[in-house]
Amino acid sequence: MTSPSREHFQEMVRGVGLRQVRLVSGTIIFAYLVSHFLNHALGNISTEALATGVHYHTMFWRFLPVTILFYGACLVHTALGIYALYQRREFRWKAIEPLQLVLGLSIPMLIIFHIVGVRLGYSLYGHQKLYPQELYNFFIASPNRLWQTLAVMVIAWVHGCIGLYFWLRLRPFFTRAAPWLLAAAVLIPTLAMLGIYQGGRAMISDYDDPDWRKQELSVEKLGTAAQGNMLERITGGLTFGYLGLLGFVVIARGARALLERRGGMIALSYGNGRTVRVPKGLSVLEASLRNNVPHASVCGGRARCSTCRIRIIGDAASLPEPSPREAFVLHRVGSDDPSIRLACQLRPNSDLSFFQLFLPHTMSADGHAGNPTRIGQERYLVSMFVDMRGSTQLAEKRLPFDTVFIVNRFLGAVSQAVLESGGRPNQFIGDGMLALFGLATGRQQACRQALRAAALIAAHVDELNQFLSHDLHEPIRFGIGIHGGEVIVGDIGYRDHMVFTALGDAVNVAARLQDMTKSLACEAVISDEVRVTAGLADHALPAQEVAIRGRDEPMTVRTVKQTHVLSALVSDERAVAA
Question: Is pLDDT larger for residue 324 or for residue 246?
Answer without folding.
Answer: 246
